[in-house]
Specification:
- A seven-stranded antiparallel sheet has the order 1-2-3-5-6-7-4.
- It is an alpha+beta fold and 214 residues long.
- The chain has five helices and seven strands.
- Strand 5 and strand 6 form a beta hairpin.
- It has one domain: Thiol Ester Dehydrase, Chain A (Roll).
- The termini are far apart.
- Bound molecules: Palmitoyl-CoA (PKZ).
- Palmitoyl-CoA (PKZ) binds next to helix 1, strand 4, strand 7, helix 3 and helix 4.
- The site of Palmitoyl-CoA has 24 residues, from helix 1, strand 4, strand 7, helix 3 and helix 4.
């Protein structure tokens, strides 16, 4: 369609050309029969700092040179808080955090809710609203919580605020994570990285701690 064409787009449907047809995405809001389970007995105590799940993770790994080095603390309920300091290597616009990295920070924080249920889960769908720009050197304070669990699907939401837990909201997110077994990683990951992770007893211990039987 010509950009200046005032004709409104035709209704979505099978006759619409594939190149312009919207894709059907799953909702990130839990269904009515979703449940809010109790914290797992193995969940970290409220206030505990959650370690990185993998040293080379872009989101939380301390060994990643340009990573976000997000730190996460367990909340009182099915929630966590996280902090991410925006560094010059995270710029999109001059002096501003790249939006994709802000999404990564939300993804990582929502993903760490796994610790509270003692199960590994991967992101199936993630929606974000960017509310205001985030300058370099600012600290993004993120609060994330589980909104419902339905079978293997974990629904969650988060808000990121600038400068403090009560600072202005910069980003909001809702996610749908799907619980997986450890084999998800060992089957799909690059073999040399899997081997290194499995050869490191500490890394292996953390990986086993996540094992689930969906
Ligand atoms: C040795 C090394 C140790 C390392 C130890 C690390 C441990 C801890 C690591 C944590 C890491 C966190 C890091 C941050 C979080 C990421 O960034 S994770 C990376 C990004 N995500 C991905 O790569 C996931 C890619 N997708 C997949 O692998 C597969 O599509 C999935 C999501 C596992 C689902 O496949 P599946 O297991 O075959 O599930 P399936 O039976 O199709 O669906 C199950 C249910 O989920 C729904 N569903 C499936 N996919 C979707 C979707 N995309 N959207 C909506 N709903 C979906 C289905 O509709 C179905 O619903 P019901 O019918 O039950 O109502």
């Amino acid at each position: 369609m010509n950009r200046s064409d005032p004709t409104p787009p035709a209704a979505q449907g099978p006759d619409r050309p594939a190149a312009v047809r919207a894709v059907a995405l799953a909702p990130t809001t839990p269904p009515a029969d979703a449940v809010l389970p109790p914290r797992a007995p193995e969940a970290p105590a409220p206030g505990a700092l959650l370690g990185s799940h993998y040293d080379h993770c872009f989101g939380c790994g301390p060994q990643h040179p340009q990573g976000l080095r997000l730190t996460v603390v367990a909340g009182e309920g099915l929630d966590v808080t996280a902090e991410f300091t925006v560094r010059p290597g995270h710029q999109g616009g001059p002096g501003l955090a790249h939006g994709g990295l802000l999404v990564t920070a939300m993804d990582e924080t929502l993903g760490s809710l796994n610790w509270l249920l003692h199960s590994a889960a991967v992101t199936g769908r993630l929606e974000t609203d960017f509310v205001r720009p985030v300058p370099v050197d600012s600290v993004l304070h993120i609060h994330a919580w589980i909104t419902g669990v339905h079978g293997r699907k974990i629904y969650s939401a988060a808000e990121g605020r600038i400068g403090g837990p009560d600072g202005p909201v910069a980003i909001r997110a809702q996610g749908l994570f799907v619980q997986v077994k450890l084999e998800h990683f060992t089957t799909h990951g690059r073999p040399e990285d899997i081997k290194k992770a499995l050869d490191d007893p500490d890394q292996f211990k953390r990986a086993r701690a996540f094992e689930v039987n969906p």
